[in-house]
Amino acid sequence: MRVTLLLAFLLVSTPFFSQTEDEKQIKSIYNKALTDGKAYDWLNYLSNQIGGRLSGSVQAQEAVDYTKGQLDSLGLDRVWLQPVMVPKWVRGVPEFAYFETKPGYTTNVPICALGGSVSTPSGGLKANIVEVQGIEELEKLGKEKIAGKIVFYNRPMEPTLINTFSAYSGCVDQRSTGAVEAAKFGAVGVIVRSMNLRLDDYPHTGNMRYGDTPVSDRIPAAAISTNGAELLSTTLKLNPDVKFYFKQNCKQLEDVQSYNVIGEITGSEFPKEVMVVGGHLDSWDLGDGSHDDGAGCVQSMDVLRLLKETGYRPKRTLRVVLFMNEENGMRGGNKYAEVARSKNENHVFALESDSGGFTPRGFSIDASDDNIKQIQGWRDLFEPYLVHMFVKGGSGADIGPLKEEGMVLAGLRPDSQRYFDHHHAENDTFEHVNKRELELGAATMASLVYLIDKYGTVTTQKIKG
Question: Measured on CA atoms in the order 447, 450, 454, 456, is the torsion positive or negative?
Answer without folding.
Answer: positive
